[in-house]
Specification:
two-stranded antiparallel ribbon; 15% strand; globular; 3 helices; 2 strands; alpha+beta; name from scop
């Protein structure tokens, strides 16, 4: 399966009912977002199927509950990756 270049940003704030979709981008715009994220050492994780699902939501939308489990696993892996990178510096 061919994946088109997508980038989505998610934010969770304690006390909010769910994470929110901060932004979504595709094509050249997604490539630029990813380039800037790497430049500023923002932890990235590739999850094509989740990105495709989240891309369908409007920006600012609450993430639907049926996506919580996979999103939680993704955020946990990003957190662990960021901790590992922090400890190695």
């Amino acid at each position: 399966m061919t994946h088109r270049k997508l980038a989505v940003g998610v934010k969770f704030v304690a006390g909010d009912p769910a994470p929110r979709l901060l932004f979504r981008a595709r094509g050249e715009q997604a490539a630029r977002v990813l380039e800037l994220a790497r430049k500023f050492q923002v932890p990235l994780k590739t999850e094509h199927e989740l990105a495709e699902l989240l891309y369908q939501l409007p920006e600012g939308a609450w993430i639907p509950e049926n996506h919580f489990r996979v999103l939680a696993q993704l955020l946990a892996s990003i957190y662990l990756l960021s901790q590992k990178n922090y400890e190695s510096t």
